Amino acid sequence: MDESKKKHRILMVSDFFYPNFGGVENHIYYLSQCLLKLGHKVVVMTHAYGNRSGVRYMTAGLKVYYIPWKPFLMQNTLPTFCGTLPIIRTILIREKISLVHGHQAFSTLCHEALMHARTMGYKVVFTDHSLYGFADVGSVHMNKVLQFTLADINQTICVSHTSKENTVLRSGLPPEKVFVIPNAVDTAVFKPAPERLSCNEIIIVVISRLVYRKGADLLVEVIPEVRFIVGGDGPKRVRLEEMREKHSLQDRVEMLGVVPHSQVRSSLSSPTDNKVGTSVEAFCIAILEAASCGLLTVSTRVGGVPEVLPDDMIVLAEPVPSDMVKAIRKAIHILPNIQPQEMHLRPSEDIEEVPDFVLPHHQDVSPESCDAQ
């Protein structure tokens, strides 16, 4: 059989999956749906979330194994090295898996699954979704683990060229084994609002996980200068609320809390004029979603963010509060010349050039979808 037409049985592995919300979780789900549409068999393995344990089914018959391991830090399971081997082996044999695809460098379950799969002779692929450093203790430790896990891997995927360079340096992989496949957005879902606010009324929306890596600390310094709607949750939410109370900004800063991915579009497509991102990331999917909604984006010139959009669709700033404020003011000055419908069509035109298997096929999903059928 032609290798390009061969139907595979793929096991997606990560500590990060629904009902937890985030970019990695959405990526795994939409990629799985796309592969199912192409006729491949896809199974997801993650750890238990609360009382969600065992086998569950999602849209299009996506089978999910919530193995009975409890997270101990930031949704990561405790490293066991060999403790997960029996259950991983059982799933590989029961589901007749031909390829194992691990996601996210900080996922303990991902590393253990890749290690055990290679030991058993399976083909393995790894996707790195984030950027990590070289100096702090956590990054040094993780880079050593990455070098060990990826020493015998078949292929590696990164979401930007900056991410590829970062992964190659951290893991010691030969560059020819690392491929760049940017994230995509379903432009049929993320559409501009039917009406815009007047130029005299500016609302800036932030949809992000409120953690250090997403630039929440920088956001705390910028918010007192302008009006914001903030969607998301995380350990840095307390700092944002403290700042709001300190400066008496309750009427200018609206905290939405956790925003499920199915509701992100409505949050972005409400009559707003701007979207701000402060992430230090390999690829910020929220920026692409905002552009698809016809919003001008302001973000920091760090990581893979400058690769996401052309210069006329985003205003970039250095990751310091004063420069972010200047960038926001520049964006407000540009806003009258922005045509949301034209901006919406541009990502569509660019995405159409990407192979079908890269594009996420939209399916409405909620945490309840994970329940057993």
TrEMBL record:
The keyword Glycosyltransferase appears for this protein: yes
Output this protein's name: Phosphatidylinositol N-acetylglucosaminyltransferase
Q: Where is the PIGA GPI anchor biosynthesis domain?
A: 47-136
Q: Which UniProt keywords apply?
A: Glycosyltransferase, Transferase
Q: Which Pfam families match?
A: Glycos_transf_1 (PF00534), PIGA (PF08288)
Q: Which GO terms describe its molecular function?
A: phosphatidylinositol N-acetylglucosaminyltransferase activity
Task: Tell me where in this chain the Glycosyl transferase family domain is found.
Answer: 199-333
Please name the GO terms of the biological process aspect recorded for this protein, alphabetically: GPI anchor biosynthetic process
An example GO CC term for this entry is: glycosylphosphatidylinositol-N-acetylglucosaminyltransferase (GPI-GnT) complex
